[in-house]
Design a protein that fits this description.
The protein is 57% helix and 13% strand. The strands form two sheets. The chain has a five-stranded mixed β-sheet with strand order 2-4-5-7-6, covered by helices on one side. Strands 1-3 form a two-stranded antiparallel sheet. The protein is elongated.
Length: 359
């Protein structure tokens, strides 16, 4: 935004310092002058015939006062310019860092030292903002690269299948259609997951009152055939847990958690428990499943987009696209909640979602 040119902050501070010093000096001289003239007689001989009279004192003191005022003004301007420069030096560093960041370099940090004053707090806040921006941009770039790769894979597979079918007309068309259908279904699932992930990252959501217990029952009912197919016991326990948010996104969150718990489970005889409740002013959803033991260093990476935990047991028909827990994390973050993942001692995973509750 273009603005009209004006005085710099340093020059304004300098003029303020000099003006304040000049006014203080003038007041001091006025007080001294007033008290001196008050006790000096206004006659030809002066006090006791040896002190100067008021006329001589005025003509003697006035030039000296004028010189003192000029000195104070010059001293105020020079000293004020130096002091203003020292005071605004941290702001100059912050401005330079902001310009560097504006050119795309987010790795630069101010790292201001010294006592913790207003400029130091501003510098630390700016460094924190740059760190968050750098992390977010890096995550977005990594996500875009992974998404491009994931979307290109089914297209490349489809092209290969069509090339093979074109070169071999005698090939069974039914097998080709089935394989193309599976590849196309995977591409559609990936695209829908990307759309949900993008929508859940938005700050503004249509909010309404949602009971997580009812959402958990709906998700469990939808995924019950998958649980029966894999021989897994699916239980929903707990009580009412109301929160404010998007009913569609919260249902997708719970569905992803339950489906993830079913897919990454024991080959048979496993269990999945979904529990809802409240803890103070917080609504809590817990999804716990059996499975093989998970390395502790693997758990924090499960919410990264396209991150597949290869050590976890899953069936190939439900291999997924690597966005299940990433979508959950994004939905929880959009609803001002927290997501905790912890490996169970006996194997499997315990996922805890905490969202702001509603009385």
């Amino acid at each position: 935004m273009d603005r009209r040119p004006g005085l710099s902050a340093r020059l304004r501070l300098t003029l303020s310092y000099a003006g304040f010093l000049a006014v203080a000096g003038a007041l001091l001289l006025a007080v001294v002058w007033g008290f001196l003239l008050r006790y000096v007689p206004d006659n030809q001989q002066g006090l006791l015939g040896i002190s100067p009279n008021r006329y001589l004192l005025v003509h003697t003191f006035a030039p000296a006062a004028a010189v003192a005022m000029a000195f104070l003004l010059v001293f105020g301007l020079v000293g004020g310019w130096i002091l203003a420069g020292r005071m605004l030096a941290p702001l100059t560093r912050i401005t330079a860092a902001a310009r560097t960041a504006g050119k795309g370099s987010l790795s630069h940090r101010i790292r201001m030292t010294g006592r913790r004053d207003e400029f130091r707090e501003l510098s630390d806040a700016f460094d924190s903002m740059l760190e968050e921006l750098e992390s977010h941009v890096a995550e977005q770039r990594r996500f875009a690269a992974n998404a491009s790769h994931e979307l290109r894979t089914p297209l490349a597979v489809s092209r290969t299948l069509l090339d093979v079918a074109r070169k071999d007309p005698t090939r069974d068309p039914g097998e080709l259609v089935e394989r193309l259908y599976a590849v196309n279904t995977r591409a559609i699932d990936l695209t829908e997951a990307l759309l949900v992930l993008s929508r859940s990252d938005r700050a503004h959501l249509h909010r309404e009152t949602v009971d997580l217990s009812l959402t958990a029952e709906e998700a469990a009912e939808t995924l019950l055939p998958l649980a029966e197919q894999r021989g897994i016991t699916l239980d929903v326990t707990g009580g009412e847990a109301r929160t404010s948010g998007s009913a569609e996104l919260l249902l997708r969150m719970v569905t992803n958690l339950v489906q993830n718990a079913l897919v990454h489970n024991l080959p048979a005889g496993g269990t999945v428990t979904v529990h809802t409740g409240t803890e103070g002013d917080t609504s809590v959803l817990r999804v716990e499943n059996t499975g093989r033991p998970l390395p502790p260093e693997l758990v924090p990476t499960l919410t990264e987009p396209f991150r597949r935990a290869t050590e976890r047991v899953r069936t190939e028909e439900h291999a997924g696209v690597g966005l299940g827990l990433a979508i959950v994390h994004s939905v929880v973050r959009a609803h001002d909640g927290t997501l905790d993942l912890a490996p169970r001692p006996g194997g499997g995973l315990l996922v805890t979602v905490r969202l702001p509750g509603i009385r």
